[in-house]
Amino acid sequence: MSNTILFGGSGFFGPIILKKDPNIISVGRSAPSLNVSNKHIFIKNLDDFSNLNKLDFDKVIFLIGSSNHHEINKSPTMGIDFNVYPLKKILSFLKSKKIKKFICFTTVLLYDEQNLKFPVNEKNPINPYKNDYIFSKYLSEEVIDFYKDYIPSIIIRLSNIYGYSKLTRPDLVPTIINSILTKKSVSIWNTKPERDFIFAEDAADAVLKLLDSDFCGKVNLGTGKSHSIKEITDIIERLSNKKIISENKLVTGPMKLVIDTSLIKKIIDWQPKFSLEKGLIKTYEITKDLFNKST
Predict the structure, then answer these.
(1) pTM for the full predicted model
(2) Burial 42-55 (b: 16+ CB within 10 A, else e)
(3) What angle do CA 234, 189, 202 make, to 5 degrees?
(4) Rounded to whole angstroms, how far apart are CA atoms 226 and 221?
(5) How many CA atoms are closer than 13 Å to the CA of 185, on its beta-carbon side?
(6) What's the pLDDT tens digit per position in 129-187?
(7) How far, in Å, CA of 111 to CA of 128, rounded?
(8) List of residues 6+ apart from 60 with CB closer than 8 A
(9) Would you tell me how many other CB atoms lie within 10 Å of the CB of residue 268?
(10) Which residue segments constitute the domains of the chain, with CATH numbers given?
């Protein structure tokens, strides 16, 4: 995989993929975190790709964007600015290249929660108009389709991914763990919703295998199992010896979401290696270590 480049190596998921394969070249404004040793190519912004013109590559993993739906849904253009324009710029640049595979990421939240058949497969109806975040992911998929005759692409519809990072993230698991490490009292809105949680290392293994596959199109990535927020808080409570209080507030989105992983398992030989508990233990211990080193 020495001809692969990855955009977004300084984010949450990028460093975990890079550590899985040290031959992948990181591209972006900032070098990867988490002591990643991969080669890094600096680019000032997505309007200037001149530093890539002499680089020999034919596969691309694109992770630039924002999953901060809380902030995106407060702004009429943030989702487009962060998730759509960057994708359009890179694909416009790659159109003239001989690319064998381009991988980018959207979300299983695209599926219409009023028409869910469990487990939810890729043919399930979508509803892209629920909020600005989901709409930006829908537009991202449309941009990919616009270039499908030029760039063989895989759109990964990602379930609830979690894992360790130096970054402060808005997702459920890092939010809980950060609160555990920094606050005396920890509370969340509701522990009843059930989601398909996948550990970032398992997701990275799948991405790297998909990169070498012949598949093009949209594919779900998750575990195929649902777990309640209560299961997550129980595990983190045991690890931290701190109580996590549920405020029992109303939450948006479906109360249960579990995805069908049969397609991805037909495409590649892959199974998640981490149970929810093992993934949370590793996430908690590494995050705690990173936090202690920074204080």
Answers:
(1) 0.96
(2) eeeebeebeebeee
(3) 55
(4) 13
(5) 4
(6) 999 999 999 999 999 999 999 999 999 999 999 999 988 888 899 999 999 999 999 99
(7) 8
(8) 4, 5, 6, 7, 90, 94, 99, 101, 102, 103
(9) 18
(10) 4-294 (3.40.50.720)
